Amino acid sequence: MMQTDTSQGKTEEELKEDTDGEPILSVKNLQTVFYTDRETIRAVDGISFDVKQGETVGIVGESGSGKSVTARSLMGLIESPGKILSGSSIQFDGKELTEYTDKQYQEIRGSGLGMVFQDPQQSMNPVYTVGNQIMEALRFNQGLRGEEAREEAVNLLESVAIPDASRRLNEYPHEFSGGMRQRAVIAMMLACDPDFLICDEPTTALDVTIQAQILDLLGELQEERGLSILFITHDMGVIAEIADRVNVMYAGEIVETAPVEELFANPRHPYTQGLLDAIPGERSGNERLRTIEGDVPTPNEPATYCRFAPRCPEAFDACDQVHPEHVQVGESDEHTAACLLYPSDKDEESRVAHHRSLGADSTTESDTV
Ligand SMILES: Nc1ncnc2c1ncn2[C@@H]1O[C@H](COP(=O)(O)OP(=O)(O)OP(=O)(O)O)[C@@H](O)[C@H]1O
Ligand code: NI
């Protein structure tokens, strides 16, 4: 008994040490735009966040808030007419990815950095068997061939709890159910032995039970392999289950960031409060949040005001004129929100002046289009 307790305590301590470490991913002032005939869409508009070794960081927000563009930016998958603006920084494992060539990106996607999409079709090729694709990944990334590759592929399918693995290796993706296919995609990612996994709504298309199983699986793999995970979802319930820290995204910007317990106990940004109020009692994977009146605007001009103001129940005049900057809103500097209501110990006039001057400081280093 005593021994179990001690060893469990130690594991927790080790875990904590891990997450206290240096970030493996550090994103600073990321700006990704799409040039269309009519306008410049600022899909990701100056976001900054870190992910430390072994932790799961969530990005949550409604449809159109820029979550997938963030993921694709990190993976080097932004194509014309899209562009990551200069002044953006993506540091991964000490390397500046915004300076990477396509070839360098291909290599890192094959080894350090993996991605699981909402739709497994995007990761799996329908014309090859599941086994073929996993073995190809093993050949490409670990140099395994023939019987050796086959054995390792069986191991990987077993590690994601796909029953009857050696038979299923010979099946095509369409012969797998949605949940099993997503497991197979995860197995394929593991064939690349990644340190970092980006999951873009990997459970959204699945029913609640299967969704919970996949989340458990990701948690187990993370513990076994020390994976760091960036987990993207529109679902606050999923965030509660999987994330250590959370970034709330709205119209291309992060509007609040906090450790997960803190965010749920003490949400500060009116948008976060709205999202939390919108959690349905009976969660269904396909449901988009709809209970905050209105939609996310397309960010097509510089944010010189609060983009949430038109939908915000607490907006006041200055919200249309002054861009809110991140200020500490909780006990620690781990909890910040970009909202003119804070810091709440100041009166309205000095809060607005505070944000105005923070904004003036930051424009010198940010990019102009
Ligand atoms: N290739 C593109 N060309 C033009 N605009 C784009 C392109 N890709 C994304 N956008 C725009 O960027 C914004 C953010 O889109 P994004 O897909 O990142 O949203 P999201 O938060 O992932 O939403 P969802 O929950 O629906 O997946 C949207 O306004 C979208 O229309
Ligand atoms: Ni998306």
Keywords:
binds adenosine-5'-triphosphate; 369 residues; 36% helix; 13 strands; five-stranded antiparallel β-sheet; Rossmann fold; binds nickel (II) ion; alpha/beta
Per CATH, the class of the largest domain reads Alpha Beta
Helix segment count? 12
Percentage beta strand:
15-25%
Instruction: Compute the number of strand runs.
Output: 13
Helices and strands, with pairings:
Elements: H1 2-19, E1 23-35, E2 40-52, E3 56-60, H2 67-74, E4 82-84, E5 89-92, E6 95-96, H3 102-110, E7 113-116, H4 130-142, H5 146-159, H6 165-168, H7 178-190, E8 196-200, H8 208-225, E9 228-233, H9 236-242, E10 245-250, E11 253-259, H10 260-265, H11 270-277, E12 326-328, E13 336-338, H12 348-363
Parallel strand pairs: 3-9, 3-10, 7-8, 8-9
Antiparallel strand pairs: 1-2, 1-4, 1-5, 5-6, 10-11, 11-13, 12-13
Helix pairs in contact: 4-5, 4-7, 5-7
Bound molecules: adenosine-5'-triphosphate and nickel (II) ion.
Nickel (II) ion binds next to helix 2.
Membrane topology: Peripheral membrane protein
EC number: 7.2.2.11
Subunit structure: The complex is composed of two ATP-binding proteins (NikD and NikE), two transmembrane proteins (NikB and NikC) and a solute-binding protein (NikA).
What does this structure look like?
The protein is 36% helix and 20% strand. It is an alpha/beta fold. The protein folds into 2 domains: 22-112 and 195-300, Rossmann fold; 119-193, no CATH class. The strands form 2 sheets. It has an 8-stranded mixed sheet, with helices on both faces. Strands 1, 2, 4, 5 and 6 form a 5-stranded antiparallel sheet that branches. Strand 12 (326-328) and strand 13 (336-338) form a beta hairpin. The chain is elongated. Mean pLDDT is 88; it is low at 1-10, 15-19 and 282-290. Nickel (II) ion binds next to helix 2. GO terms for molecular function: ABC-type nickel transporter activity; ATP binding. Residues 1-22, 350-369 are annotated as: Disordered. Its EC number is 7.2.2.11.
